[in-house]
Automatic annotation (TrEMBL):
Domain of life: Bacteria
Record keyword S-adenosyl-L-methionine present: no
GO BP field: proteolysis
Protein known as: Zinc metalloprotease
Main localisation: membrane
EC identifiers of the protein: 3.4.24.-
UniProt-annotated location(s): Membrane
Transmembrane annotation, as ranges: 6-25, 94-115, 369-389, 423-444
GO molecular function: metal ion binding; metalloendopeptidase activity
Similarity remark: Belongs to the peptidase M50B family.
Record's bilayer topology term: Multi-pass membrane protein
PANTHER family: MEMBRANE METALLOPROTEASE ARASP2, CHLOROPLASTIC-RELATED, REGULATOR OF SIGMA-E PROTEASE RSEP
GO cellular component terms, A-Z: membrane
Lineage, uppermost ranks: Bacteria, Pseudomonadati, Pseudomonadota, Gammaproteobacteria, Thiotrichales
């Protein structure tokens, strides 16, 4: 229920932003807007504004729409014809249709700007160990090095390091890493291994770097529905105490044990609801062959030593540049992933639907307002990019038809446009089916 509430909040925010983009530009292009709807279906709330637009809240929260005066959909008097969408110039129609996705991207820039101005706390990216003969070792990195920059971009926290590496790892690209080694700045180059989306979370392990982290208390912050952790009876807030009658004080040690115990029965003890109880936990076998239980740690319960505390923050003006860069980088990564799915280089198993999004929404909200804003920024970018794809029924599909109109000199016939819309509808249904199927597979195994 918690995840569902924040999923609906996130969806409502992003739908309003997207549709308001269409609405705002349409009004300024002289088009009459008949209805502004958040959600689909029979209205549960509606009001006609002074501008004559009907504002609607509908029960199916899977999108929204802006209905404009259009002679192709309804009879329009000659006096009102000048305000119809279909009577506008090609440039105005392109502006109106593209305004929704652009609004999503602008919102992401604003969200990232806010995060960068307020500051994002984290842990200094100091290397604890470098695996011998690894990519990092061959590049010249050593234990004790602090990563300062990747490809010229500052990386004051491990989170910023992860983001910089993930942007390059999917296709295996060369990067330049600037480190502080014994207070001396050094630059090293290395080629990242090409890894799939399901492996990017282990990118540091892939290149042979072990981060220096404080001993994190093994207190659970999230338990995924249908996961081995939930089946064992674990809940958010539980503190893991021991396994096989041996006390395990840190989360890192628990991770090592679970990864090494795929498919094996672990007799554990946890502190739950004020008492010490015994449970049986069986980690499932992950795609990398290692054990996993579908639970995350609540790092906020562990105090970070002063010498490892760091913060990613910029001034209001400088933050604009990095907010744009961050939005561009995530947009590029999204497009690469989509292209990878189309070409078969990236598995469609990585496609997530509403269940996955709801789980991430709830998890990010639990971690605080800034985490939830970051989540909104990423989903807003994804929504904007997806809507720009040249698929009929999406904004990108309309833009593709406008491009054809510009080349041909006149629009496609209404009959052809209807048939194209039907094809687009089938494509969207197929994508939604895959996303739902992946969600259900993750939940029920």
């Amino acid at each position: 229920m918690h995840s569902l509430i924040f999923f609906l909040i996130a969806l409502a925010i992003l739908i309003v932003i997207h549709e308001y983009g269409h609405f705002w530009v349409a009004r300024r292009c002289g088009v009459k807007v008949l209805r502004f709807s958040v959600g689909f279906g029979k209205p549960i709330w509606q009001k006609v504004g002074k501008d004559g637009t009907e504002y609607v809240l509908a029960p199916i929260p899977m999108g929204g729409y802006v209905k404009m005066l259009d002679e192709r959909e309804m009879p329009v008097s000659e006096e009102q014809a000048q305000f119809a969408f279909n009577r506008q110039s090609l440039a105005k129609r392109v502006a109106i249709v593209s305004a929704g996705p652009i609004a999503n991207l602008l919102f992401a820039i604003l969200a990232y700007w806010l995060l960068l101005v307020v500051g994002v706390s984290g842990i200094k990216p100091v290397i604890d160990d470098v695996r011998p003969a690894s990519i990092a070792a061959e590049a010249g990195l050593h234990a004790g090095d602090e990563i300062l920059q990747i490809d010229g971009n500052d990386t004051p926290t491990w989170n910023s390091v992860y983001k910089a590496l993930i942007q390059k790892a999917e296709y295996g690209e060369k990067i330049d890493i600037t480190v502080s080694s014994a207070s001396i700045k050094q630059q090293h180059s290395l080629i990242l291994p090409q890894v799939g989306l399901e492996q990017v979370g282990n990118i540091l392990e892939q290149i042979g770097i072990e981060p220096l982290r404080p001993a994190i208390k093994p207190i659970l912050g999230e338990v995924m529905p249908g996961s081995p952790a939930e089946k064992a009876g674990l809940k958010a807030g539980d503190m893991l105490l021991s396994a096989q009658q041996e006390t395990i004080p840190s989360w890192n040690q628990w991770v090592e044990l679970i990864q090494a115990s795929a498919g094996k029965k672990l007799d554990i003890e946890v502190f739950q609801d004020g008492e010490r109880i015994a449970l049986t936990l069986i980690p499932e076998i992950g795609e990398d062959g290692k054990g996993r239980i579908g639970a995350a740690v609540d790092a906020s319960q562990t105090a970070i030593p002063q010498e490892l505390q760091a913060e990613l923050r910029y001034g209001p003006i400088e933050a604009i540049k990095y907010a744009v860069i961050q939005t561009w980088d995530f947009s590029s990564s999204t497009l690469k992933s989509l292209w990878g799915m189309i070409t078969g280089k990236v598995s469609t198993d990585n496609l997530g639907g509403p269940i996955s999004i709801a789980q991430i929404a709830g998890s990010s909200a639990e971690q605080g307002v800034m985490s939830f804003i970051s989540f909104l920024a990423m989903i807003s970018i994804t929504l904007g990019i997806l809507n720009l794809l040249p698929i009929p029924m999406l904004d990108g599909g309309h833009l593709a038809m406008f491009a054809f109109e510009a080349v041909r000199g006149k629009p496609l016939s209404d009959t052809v446009q209807v048939q194209i819309q039907k094809v687009g509808f089938l494509v969207l249904i197929m994508v939604m089916f895959i996303a739902f199927f992946n969600d259900l597979s993750r939940v029920f195994g």
